[in-house]
Amino acid sequence: MASGGLKPSLRYHKKVVIVTGGTKGIGEAIVRVFVNNGASVVFCSKEETASDLEAELNSCGTGAAIYVSCDVTKEEEIKRLIDVTVKTYGKIDCLINNAGWHPPEQIIDNTSAQDFQDLLNLNLIGYFLTAKYALPHLRKTQGNIINISSLVGIIGQKHAIPYVATKGAVTAMTKAMAIDESQYNVRVNSICPGNVWTPLWEELSRHSSDPNAMILGGKDAQLLGRMGTTEECANAVLFLAAEGTFCTGIDILLTGGAELNYANKNQQEARSSIYH
Ligand SMILES: NC(=O)c1ccc[n+]([C@@H]2O[C@H](COP(=O)([O-])OP(=O)(O)OC[C@H]3O[C@@H](n4cnc5c(N)ncnc54)[C@H](O)[C@@H]3O)[C@@H](O)[C@H]2O)c1
Protein backbone atom coordinates (compact mmCIF):
# COMPACT_ATOMS: atom_id res chain seq x y z
CA MET A 1 0.00 0.00 0.00
CA ALA A 2 2.99 2.34 0.48
CA SER A 3 3.11 2.96 -3.25
CA GLY A 4 -0.65 2.55 -3.79
CA GLY A 5 -3.25 5.03 -5.07
CA LEU A 6 -3.86 8.62 -3.97
CA LYS A 7 -4.66 8.84 -0.27
CA PRO A 8 -5.50 12.46 0.49
CA SER A 9 -6.07 11.72 4.17
CA LEU A 10 -2.47 10.58 4.63
CA ARG A 11 -0.43 13.51 5.91
CA TYR A 12 3.09 12.33 4.96
CA HIS A 13 2.42 10.06 2.01
CA LYS A 14 5.49 8.74 0.15
CA LYS A 15 7.87 10.79 2.29
CA VAL A 16 11.02 9.16 3.67
CA VAL A 17 11.69 9.64 7.38
CA ILE A 18 14.51 8.61 9.73
CA VAL A 19 13.71 8.23 13.44
CA THR A 20 16.58 7.57 15.85
CA GLY A 21 15.67 5.59 18.95
CA GLY A 22 12.42 4.35 17.41
CA THR A 23 11.89 1.10 19.30
CA LYS A 24 10.41 2.47 22.54
CA GLY A 25 8.67 5.44 24.12
CA ILE A 26 8.36 8.71 22.21
CA GLY A 27 10.39 7.42 19.25
CA GLU A 28 8.18 4.36 18.75
CA ALA A 29 5.05 6.53 18.78
CA ILE A 30 6.64 8.82 16.18
CA VAL A 31 7.47 5.84 13.95
CA ARG A 32 3.87 4.61 14.23
CA VAL A 33 2.23 7.95 13.43
CA PHE A 34 4.43 8.51 10.37
CA VAL A 35 3.86 4.96 9.02
CA ASN A 36 0.12 5.39 9.62
CA ASN A 37 0.29 8.57 7.55
CA GLY A 38 1.90 6.92 4.55
CA ALA A 39 5.60 7.53 5.17
CA SER A 40 8.47 5.09 4.63
CA VAL A 41 10.31 5.13 7.94
CA VAL A 42 13.81 3.95 8.79
CA PHE A 43 14.13 3.60 12.56
CA CYS A 44 17.08 2.59 14.70
CA SER A 45 18.29 1.69 18.15
CA LYS A 46 21.38 -0.05 19.51
CA GLU A 47 19.73 -3.49 19.52
CA GLU A 48 20.50 -6.05 16.79
CA THR A 49 16.92 -6.41 15.57
CA ALA A 50 13.38 -5.18 16.12
CA SER A 51 11.70 -7.71 13.86
CA ASP A 52 8.34 -7.93 15.67
CA LEU A 53 7.80 -4.16 15.58
CA GLU A 54 9.06 -3.99 11.98
CA ALA A 55 6.63 -6.74 10.89
CA GLU A 56 3.71 -5.10 12.71
CA LEU A 57 4.42 -1.72 11.11
CA ASN A 58 4.59 -3.25 7.65
CA SER A 59 1.25 -4.97 8.07
CA CYS A 60 -0.67 -1.77 8.86
CA GLY A 61 -1.57 -1.17 5.21
CA THR A 62 -0.31 2.41 4.85
CA GLY A 63 3.41 3.30 4.91
CA ALA A 64 6.44 1.07 5.37
CA ALA A 65 9.24 0.65 7.91
CA ILE A 66 12.69 -0.85 8.09
CA TYR A 67 14.82 -1.27 11.17
CA VAL A 68 18.55 -0.55 11.14
CA SER A 69 20.77 -1.29 14.11
CA CYS A 70 22.66 1.96 14.84
CA ASP A 71 24.28 3.31 17.98
CA VAL A 72 24.08 7.09 17.51
CA THR A 73 27.24 7.59 19.59
CA LYS A 74 29.20 5.92 16.74
CA GLU A 75 29.85 8.09 13.69
CA GLU A 76 30.41 5.14 11.32
CA GLU A 77 27.06 3.62 12.32
CA ILE A 78 25.29 6.93 11.69
CA LYS A 79 26.83 7.09 8.19
CA ARG A 80 25.55 3.56 7.56
CA LEU A 81 22.03 4.51 8.75
CA ILE A 82 21.94 7.34 6.21
CA ASP A 83 23.41 5.14 3.42
CA VAL A 84 20.89 2.34 4.00
CA THR A 85 18.01 4.87 3.94
CA VAL A 86 19.11 6.44 0.66
CA LYS A 87 19.91 3.05 -0.96
CA THR A 88 16.50 1.67 0.07
CA TYR A 89 14.21 4.64 -0.55
CA GLY A 90 16.29 6.99 -2.76
CA LYS A 91 15.85 10.17 -0.66
CA ILE A 92 15.34 11.63 2.83
CA ASP A 93 12.52 14.09 3.57
CA CYS A 94 12.67 14.26 7.36
CA LEU A 95 15.11 13.41 10.14
CA ILE A 96 13.81 13.02 13.69
CA ASN A 97 16.56 13.05 16.29
CA ASN A 98 15.09 11.33 19.34
CA ALA A 99 17.58 8.76 20.74
CA GLY A 100 18.60 10.02 24.15
CA TRP A 101 18.88 9.15 27.81
CA HIS A 102 18.24 10.72 31.21
CA PRO A 103 20.55 9.27 33.87
CA PRO A 104 19.26 8.66 37.41
CA GLU A 105 19.92 11.49 39.89
CA GLN A 106 23.40 13.00 39.46
CA ILE A 107 25.00 15.47 41.84
CA ILE A 108 28.09 17.32 40.68
CA ASP A 109 30.37 15.88 43.39
CA ASN A 110 29.80 12.34 42.06
CA THR A 111 29.72 13.14 38.34
CA SER A 112 32.92 12.68 36.36
CA ALA A 113 33.96 14.50 33.21
CA GLN A 114 33.60 11.15 31.44
CA ASP A 115 29.98 10.78 32.64
CA PHE A 116 29.23 14.22 31.24
CA GLN A 117 31.12 13.53 28.00
CA ASP A 118 29.27 10.25 27.43
CA LEU A 119 25.87 11.95 27.80
CA LEU A 120 26.94 14.79 25.51
CA ASN A 121 27.95 12.24 22.88
CA LEU A 122 24.52 10.60 23.01
CA ASN A 123 22.12 13.52 23.58
CA LEU A 124 23.87 16.26 21.60
CA ILE A 125 26.71 15.08 19.33
CA GLY A 126 24.53 12.16 18.14
CA TYR A 127 21.88 14.69 16.98
CA PHE A 128 24.60 16.86 15.39
CA LEU A 129 26.22 14.01 13.45
CA THR A 130 22.95 12.49 12.24
CA ALA A 131 21.95 15.95 10.98
CA LYS A 132 25.36 16.44 9.39
CA TYR A 133 25.13 13.26 7.29
CA ALA A 134 21.42 13.62 6.49
CA LEU A 135 21.63 17.27 5.40
CA PRO A 136 23.13 16.73 1.92
CA HIS A 137 20.03 14.62 1.18
CA LEU A 138 17.57 16.91 3.00
CA ARG A 139 18.79 19.88 0.95
CA LYS A 140 17.81 18.03 -2.25
CA THR A 141 14.24 17.44 -1.03
CA GLN A 142 13.89 20.74 0.90
CA GLY A 143 13.19 18.52 3.86
CA ASN A 144 13.23 19.14 7.59
CA ILE A 145 14.78 18.10 10.90
CA ILE A 146 12.93 17.75 14.19
CA ASN A 147 14.95 17.44 17.39
CA ILE A 148 13.43 16.04 20.57
CA SER A 149 14.65 18.40 23.27
CA SER A 150 13.21 18.80 26.79
CA LEU A 151 11.49 21.40 28.95
CA VAL A 152 14.26 21.03 31.52
CA GLY A 153 16.71 22.53 29.00
CA ILE A 154 14.76 25.77 29.53
CA ILE A 155 13.73 25.68 33.20
CA GLY A 156 16.42 23.40 34.68
CA GLN A 157 15.96 20.32 36.87
CA LYS A 158 17.28 19.17 40.22
CA HIS A 159 20.21 16.72 40.21
CA ALA A 160 20.50 16.59 36.45
CA ILE A 161 23.23 19.08 35.44
CA PRO A 162 24.60 17.12 32.45
CA TYR A 163 21.13 16.18 31.13
CA VAL A 164 19.83 19.76 31.41
CA ALA A 165 22.97 21.05 29.67
CA THR A 166 22.60 18.61 26.76
CA LYS A 167 18.94 19.50 26.21
CA GLY A 168 19.50 23.26 26.49
CA ALA A 169 22.17 22.79 23.84
CA VAL A 170 19.78 20.82 21.60
CA THR A 171 17.28 23.72 21.66
CA ALA A 172 20.04 26.24 20.95
CA MET A 173 21.59 24.07 18.20
CA THR A 174 18.16 23.77 16.55
CA LYS A 175 17.97 27.55 16.14
CA ALA A 176 21.55 27.83 14.83
CA MET A 177 20.95 25.03 12.32
CA ALA A 178 17.64 26.62 11.22
CA ILE A 179 19.53 29.81 10.36
CA ASP A 180 22.25 28.08 8.34
CA GLU A 181 19.92 25.71 6.47
CA SER A 182 17.25 28.28 5.56
CA GLN A 183 19.18 29.07 2.35
CA TYR A 184 18.36 25.51 1.21
CA ASN A 185 14.73 25.70 2.38
CA VAL A 186 15.49 23.05 4.98
CA ARG A 187 13.49 23.68 8.17
CA VAL A 188 14.88 22.74 11.59
CA ASN A 189 12.58 22.66 14.64
CA SER A 190 12.33 21.02 18.03
CA ILE A 191 9.74 19.86 20.50
CA CYS A 192 10.22 20.28 24.22
CA PRO A 193 8.28 17.62 26.15
CA GLY A 194 7.79 17.87 29.89
CA ASN A 195 6.97 14.66 31.77
CA VAL A 196 5.88 11.96 29.31
CA TRP A 197 5.20 8.43 30.50
CA THR A 198 7.69 6.16 28.69
CA PRO A 199 9.98 3.19 29.52
CA LEU A 200 12.64 5.79 30.39
CA TRP A 201 10.40 7.47 32.97
CA GLU A 202 9.46 4.06 34.36
CA GLU A 203 13.15 3.11 34.65
CA LEU A 204 13.94 6.39 36.45
CA SER A 205 11.11 5.85 38.93
CA ARG A 206 12.45 2.36 39.70
CA HIS A 207 15.73 3.96 40.86
CA SER A 208 13.83 6.10 43.36
CA SER A 209 13.42 5.12 47.03
CA ASP A 210 9.64 5.69 46.62
CA PRO A 211 8.61 5.04 42.98
CA ASN A 212 4.89 5.74 43.61
CA ALA A 213 5.62 9.13 45.18
CA MET A 214 7.95 9.98 42.32
CA ILE A 215 5.30 9.09 39.73
CA LEU A 216 2.66 11.13 41.59
CA GLY A 217 5.08 14.08 41.73
CA GLY A 218 5.70 13.61 37.99
CA LYS A 219 1.96 13.95 37.32
CA ASP A 220 1.42 16.84 39.74
CA ALA A 221 4.18 18.89 38.09
CA GLN A 222 1.75 19.73 35.28
CA LEU A 223 -1.20 22.16 35.54
CA LEU A 224 -3.14 19.52 33.62
CA GLY A 225 -2.51 17.04 36.45
CA ARG A 226 -1.14 14.21 34.34
CA MET A 227 1.89 13.24 32.30
CA GLY A 228 1.86 13.65 28.53
CA THR A 229 1.51 10.67 26.22
CA THR A 230 3.91 9.51 23.55
CA GLU A 231 1.11 9.93 20.98
CA GLU A 232 0.75 13.62 21.88
CA CYS A 233 4.47 14.06 21.18
CA ALA A 234 4.24 12.14 17.91
CA ASN A 235 1.29 14.26 16.72
CA ALA A 236 3.24 17.48 17.36
CA VAL A 237 6.20 16.09 15.41
CA LEU A 238 3.95 15.12 12.49
CA PHE A 239 2.47 18.63 12.51
CA LEU A 240 5.96 20.17 12.23
CA ALA A 241 6.89 17.83 9.38
CA ALA A 242 3.65 17.92 7.40
CA GLU A 243 1.82 21.17 8.03
CA GLY A 244 4.24 23.50 9.83
CA THR A 245 5.75 24.63 6.55
CA PHE A 246 6.32 28.24 7.76
CA CYS A 247 7.93 27.11 11.03
CA THR A 248 11.68 27.04 11.37
CA GLY A 249 13.82 27.41 14.49
CA ILE A 250 10.80 26.98 16.75
CA ASP A 251 10.48 24.87 19.86
CA ILE A 252 7.00 23.49 20.66
CA LEU A 253 6.40 23.15 24.40
CA LEU A 254 4.44 19.97 25.21
CA THR A 255 4.32 20.41 28.93
CA GLY A 256 0.77 20.50 30.28
CA GLY A 257 1.64 23.95 31.68
CA ALA A 258 4.47 22.65 33.91
CA GLU A 259 6.47 25.86 33.51
CA LEU A 260 3.61 28.19 34.52
CA ASN A 261 2.75 29.84 37.84
CA TYR A 262 4.72 30.46 41.01
CA ALA A 263 5.04 27.53 43.39
CA ASN A 264 6.65 26.88 46.73
CA LYS A 265 10.29 26.26 45.89
CA ASN A 266 11.75 27.20 49.27
CA GLN A 267 14.57 24.79 50.14
CA GLN A 268 15.03 26.14 53.68
CA GLU A 269 15.01 22.64 55.14
CA ALA A 270 17.74 21.39 52.83
CA ARG A 271 19.80 24.54 53.52
CA SER A 272 19.57 24.21 57.27
CA SER A 273 20.66 20.55 57.13
CA ILE A 274 23.83 21.68 55.32
CA TYR A 275 24.66 24.62 57.62
CA HIS A 276 23.68 23.15 61.01
N1 LIG B 1 10.01 10.74 28.71
C1 LIG B 1 10.08 12.02 29.03
O1 LIG B 1 9.45 12.50 30.00
C2 LIG B 1 10.91 12.96 28.17
C3 LIG B 1 10.77 14.34 28.41
C4 LIG B 1 11.51 15.22 27.65
C5 LIG B 1 12.35 14.75 26.67
N2 LIG B 1 12.49 13.41 26.46
C6 LIG B 1 13.43 12.99 25.40
O2 LIG B 1 12.72 12.20 24.47
C7 LIG B 1 13.61 11.26 23.88
C8 LIG B 1 13.02 9.86 24.02
O3 LIG B 1 12.82 9.59 25.40
P1 LIG B 1 11.93 8.36 25.92
O4 LIG B 1 11.42 8.76 27.24
O5 LIG B 1 11.02 7.91 24.85
O6 LIG B 1 13.10 7.28 26.14
P2 LIG B 1 13.08 5.65 26.07
O7 LIG B 1 14.25 5.20 26.88
O8 LIG B 1 11.75 5.16 26.43
O9 LIG B 1 13.40 5.37 24.53
C9 LIG B 1 14.66 5.78 24.01
C10 LIG B 1 14.92 5.19 22.65
O10 LIG B 1 16.26 5.57 22.25
C11 LIG B 1 17.03 4.41 21.94
N3 LIG B 1 18.45 4.65 22.23
C12 LIG B 1 19.03 4.87 23.44
N4 LIG B 1 20.37 5.00 23.29
C13 LIG B 1 20.62 4.87 21.96
C14 LIG B 1 21.79 4.89 21.17
N5 LIG B 1 23.02 5.08 21.71
N6 LIG B 1 21.70 4.72 19.83
C15 LIG B 1 20.48 4.52 19.26
N7 LIG B 1 19.33 4.47 19.94
C16 LIG B 1 19.40 4.64 21.28
C17 LIG B 1 16.39 3.29 22.79
O11 LIG B 1 16.70 2.02 22.26
C18 LIG B 1 14.91 3.66 22.64
O12 LIG B 1 14.42 3.18 21.39
C19 LIG B 1 14.96 11.43 24.59
O13 LIG B 1 15.78 12.26 23.82
C20 LIG B 1 14.57 12.11 25.90
O14 LIG B 1 15.61 12.87 26.43
C21 LIG B 1 11.78 12.50 27.19
Structure description:
It contains 10 helices and 7 strands. The chain has 276 residues and is an alpha/beta fold. It has one domain (16-259): NAD(P)-binding Rossmann-like Domain (Rossmann fold, 3-Layer(aba) Sandwich). A 7-stranded parallel beta sheet has the order 3-2-1-4-5-6-7, with helices on both faces. Helix 1 packs across helix 9 (230-242), helix 3 (75-89) packs parallel to helix 4 (113-141) and helix 4 (113-141) runs parallel beside helix 6. It is globular and about 60 Å long. Bound molecules: nicotinamide-adenine-dinucleotide (NAD).
What composes the largest sheet? 7 strands, parallel
**Low-confidence regions:** none
| SSE ordering | EHEHEHEHEHHEHHHEH
> What is the level-2 CATH architecture name?
3-Layer(aba) Sandwich
Outline type? globular
Number of helices: 10
Please identify which CATH superfamily we are dealing with: NAD(P)-binding Rossmann-like Domain
| CATH fold-level topology | Rossmann fold
* Mean pLDDT across all amino acids: 95
What is the total number of structural domains?
Answer: 1
What is the rounded Rg?
A: 19 Å
How would the blueprint of this fold be written?
Blueprint: E1 16-20, H1 25-36, E2 40-45, H2 51-58, E3 64-69, H3 75-89, E4 94-97, H4 113-141, E5 144-148, H5 152-155, H6 161-181, E6 187-193, H7 199-206, H8 211-220, H9 230-242, E7 251-254, H10 268-275
Parallel strand pairs: 1-2, 1-4, 2-3, 4-5, 5-6, 6-7
Helix pairs in contact: 1-9, 3-4, 4-6
Nicotinamide-adenine-dinucleotide binds next to α1, β2 and α7.
